[in-house]
Amino acid sequence: MTNSRGEFSSRFGFLMAASGSAVGLGNIWGFPTNAASNGGAAFLFTYLLLALVLAYPALMAELIIGRHSRSNAVTALQLISVGEKSKLLGFLVGFLGIVTVTFILSFYAVVSGWMFALFIEPIARFFGWISVASWLEFDSTARNIIALVLFMVLTISIINAGVQNGIEKWARRLMPALITILIALSLYVFTLPGALVGLQAYLIPDFTRVASAELLVDAMGQAFFSLSLGVGTMLVYGSYLSKEENLPMIGGLVALLDVGIAVLAGLLILPAMYVALESGVEIFDSQGNLIAGPRLIVSVLPNLFGTMGSVGLFVAFSFFALMTIASLTSSISMLEVPVSYAVEELNFSRSRASVSIGGFVTIMSILIAMNFDWLFDVVVTLTTELSQPLLGLFFCIFVGWIWRRDAILEEIRCGSPNVQNSIFWKIWPFYVKFICPLAILMVYLQ
Ligand code: PFF
Fold first, then answer.
1. Structural domain for 222, as ranges
2. What lines the ligand 1 site, CB under 6 Å?
3. Could you tell me where the DSSP H helices lie in 230-300?
4. Cα–Cα distance measured from residue 440 to residue 11, given in angstroms and rounded to the nearest whole number
5. How far is the CA of 278 from the centre of ligand 1 (A)?
6. What is the DSSP string of 282-293?
7. Does residue 2 form part of some domain?
């Protein structure tokens, strides 16, 4: 069974794939702007704390269920359930995860399409194809649809190639490129006037906001979205992980990479915004808040690149390459969730599953792009604010309350035989059983 399902060939391959899923638009766009509008380093501290005490335990829950069951999200949750009722609950939670991730991908592909169009734009300009470049630069429904379709074709092709030849191969290439571009761009932006003011806005904490409920909700939502939790992505990637791997350690590395890249992205985006301000670009909205929504990426930053002359072309190219890579390694992880279910439970071939489900997502994305003004926010709110934390809560309930504790220990001991005496085993079971569900519930009710 294992062979026909596929398995990551190495720890590095898994690390690149799982951190590729985690690191996405949420880190490079969402995190820095959330931090800027929520008290700078005060948000950073809250986020780090929540990532450590809430998101990491929830991530471990998904990885452990996945590696134990070696199957898609629905079957996995049913396998660890004992009675009929919990099996039914397993089916419902797994299935809702699949539906949620399919809809997340539908809106994610729209935004990723913009990134892709803006990545091609400097190339067209470089070759002197000015009318193509202008068409790519300006927001239009036709451009958005064509770009999202191309982006989905890339996503579908990688998933179609399988776990090792698709997901792992591309994550191994793209993630080191992403980290290199991110570091190089941050270093470059630091040499420009205004960068230090941006750094202050990012790093000087406004502690009056730490206790605010809004900040807590934002930081938790950010942590869950960023680690791709609740919708079965990490469960499915965990199901392709070798039994020899030390799960607590490898999960810790994924969380660290995710948080580290988000923090690093803050060192790029906020200084870049203040550099833009210095060059005369508007970075505050009419209420005096930093522009954080789509305008930041599709207008503020491109305006900044426009003031840089010919270097700007190269900077724009690198920046949107970074955004496209971040989107692609996340979108493939999303498509893998329904595809693995269709292959294992509905007996689809991998290519039939990737093309039909990917095609369905593409149609949904086109509908969202065509009705952007009202539909986009509705889908984002329903999936990431309502469904995702609730599903995260159920994953913790499955591990804390439904799955037998000795079976969990046995699974973690593969790859870390002494885990029983470790601090992880002293704290984590208690955490997923009580603290995580309660904390998620409290923040959710906010
Ligand atoms: N973690 C991704 C990001 O930060 O952009 C988004 C994401 C990927 C959410 C995969 C959900 C998911 F299943």
1. 7-445
2. 21-22, 24-27, 101, 104, 225-226, 228, 231, 233, 330, 333-334
3. 233-239, 247-278, 294-295
4. 30
5. 33
6. --B-TTSPBP-S
7. no
The CATH number of whichever domain residue 195 belongs to comes to 1.20.1740.10
Residue 28 CA to residue 330 CA, distance in Å, equals 12
pLDDT digits (tens, 9 = 90+) for 243-256: 999 999 999 999 99
Evaluate if pTM is beyond 0.90: yes
Overall number of domains in the chain: 1
Q: Where are the beta strands (DSSP E) in 269-419?
A: none
- List pLDDT tens digits, range 341-383: 999 999 999 999 999 999 999 999 999 999 999 999 999 999 9
296, 246, 251: which is closest to 269 by C-alpha? 296
Phi, psi of 120 (to 5 degrees): -75, -30
Instruction: Reduce the DSSP state of residue 255 to 3 states and report it.
Output: helix
Kindly state whether residue 432 falls inside one of the protein's structural domains.
yes
Is residue 149 in a domain? yes
Q: Is 127 part of a structural domain of the chain?
A: yes
Q: Look-up: residue for tokens 């833009």? A: 276
Question: Using DSSP, how many helices (H) and how many strands (E) does the chain show?
Answer: 24, 0
Protein residue whose Cα sits closest to atom 9 of ligand 1: 228
And the tokens for 33? 């702007």
Q: How far apart are alpha carbons 403 and 399 in whole angstroms?
A: 5
Q: What is the pLDDT of residues 109-123, one digit of tens each?
A: 999 999 999 999 999
